[in-house]
């Protein structure tokens, strides 16, 4: 679910403009999807995309209640626009292919104080209003989809340098494919000495400081690419689930908070006699020049680093509530580029954690389809990879990261506000 930021404005004046806005904000043309857009007066608010439930497979009342409940988390919204993207055109005026679902959505959103203000159905070649039956303005089977492509809003987005690309399920495998086979071979040779020791002793207090220091150096120096030895070390460190979680929190917040959080929950272990350090780094207790200070977990403002550590992993959730701290989106945006580089530089099971973290970043942004594509790619690399499976289950049950539902903490990836007229 995406929150719109109150900066530049684009005016949406008719159905084709609104429908052109949807693929632009999602980044791709929806397929077999329900898209709901909250409204506050004439301003467009959060955008939510869900897969259309299979016929007879899901109770439409339950599905509609979940959809309405999620969008209603934006307390400023007082209405909703609905677009249903199907795979066939709506050709028979007497038979709307999603009538039961649409009726349930109207009821559920009305119960949340967000009545449906307008709705459209978009088929393979034509689109039309769900409510309008006047053939003079809404002829059957509707307006051609090329009218959406030629709309004012689509032209405005193109002028501003934005364009619609392919579906994430097609783009993610291409984006994460190995780009340099020779470099990937060097990593596969360099990673072996790190895998066992980091899996066994990666949660040692000093060892974790070294590892987080390695990630911090790589993040700070990006877009300078880590060499094969450093890339292998970073990938190997993610093989330990606890270290992987610590890296995720470190990328979203700070390495100090991450280390304090694991200390607070008691997950840290005694260090091994010999620390595992990246090649060309000092053999002391920290990565050269990137010392991670071990803070007491109670020193973290806001209720303790241990609680915040868990909240970050759940996208801002603390005991069913919200984490007061928004993530550092600048760090996460840079981390995404670093992780994509690592994903493009390795193959097989060692690649799964990086792919999963990429999906987690997308989930924290509220981009569920992108997240699901990464989780699936992670499970392709490592069948049964647990974290990808668990996060995919959250997606399937409609759980949205709390950060994405809070305007103050939502990802500022889009810098415009839309209005209807």
From TrEMBL:
Pfam families: DUF4192. InterPro entries: DUF4192. This is DUF4192 domain-containing protein.
């Amino acid at each position: 679910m995406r929150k719109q930021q109150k900066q530049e404005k684009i005016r949406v004046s008719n159905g084709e403009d609104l429908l052109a806005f949807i693929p632009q904000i999602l980044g791709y043309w929806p397929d077999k999807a329900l898209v709901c857009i909250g409204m506050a007066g004439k301003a467009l608010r959060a955008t939510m995309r869900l897969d259309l439930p299979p016929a007879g497979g899901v109770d439409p009342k339950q599905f509609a209640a979940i959809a309405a409940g999620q969008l209603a988390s934006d307390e400023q919204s007082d209405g909703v626009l609905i677009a249903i993207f199907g795979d066939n055109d709506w050709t028979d005026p007497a038979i709307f292919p999603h009538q039961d679902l649409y009726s349930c959505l109207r009821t559920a959103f009305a119960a949340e104080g967000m009545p449906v203000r307008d709705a459209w159905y978009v088929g393979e070649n034509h689109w039309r209003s769900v409510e309008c039956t006047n053939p003079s303005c809404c002829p059957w089977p509707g307006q051609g989809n090329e009218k959406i492509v030629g709309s004012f809003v689509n032209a405005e987005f193109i002028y501003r340098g934005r364009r619609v690309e392919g579906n994430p399920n097609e783009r993610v495998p291409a984006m994460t494919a190995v780009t340099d086979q020779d470099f990937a071979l060097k990593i596969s040779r360099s990673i072996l000495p790190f895998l066992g020791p980091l899996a066994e002793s990666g949660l040692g207090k000093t060892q974790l400081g070294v590892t987080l220091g390695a990630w911090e150096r790589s993040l700070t120096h990006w877009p300078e690419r880590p060499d094969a030895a450093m890339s292998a070390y970073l990938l190997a460190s993610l093989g330990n689930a606890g270290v992987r979680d610590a890296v995720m929190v470190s990328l979203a917040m700070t390495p100090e908070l991450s280390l304090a959080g694991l200390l607070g929950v008691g997950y840290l272990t005694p260090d091994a006699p010999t620390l595992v350090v990246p090649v060309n780094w000092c053999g002391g207790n920290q990565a050269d020049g990137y010392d991670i200070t071990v803070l007491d977990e109670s020193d973290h403002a806001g209720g303790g680093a241990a609680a915040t550590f868990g909240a970050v992993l759940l996208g801002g959730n603390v005991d069913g509530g919200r984490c007061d701290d928004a993530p550092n989106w600048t760090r996460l945006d840079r981390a995404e580029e670093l992780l994509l580089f690592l994903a493009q530089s390795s193959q097989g099971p060692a690649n799964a954690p990086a792919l999963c973290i990429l999906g987690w970043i997308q989930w924290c942004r509220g981009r569920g389809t992108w997240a699901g594509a990464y989780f699936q790619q992670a499970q392709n690399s490592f069948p049964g990879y647990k974290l990808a499976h668990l996060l995919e289950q959250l997606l399937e049950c409609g759980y949205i990261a709390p950060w994405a539902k809070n305007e103050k903490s939502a990802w500022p990836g889009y810098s415009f506000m839309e209005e209807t007229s």
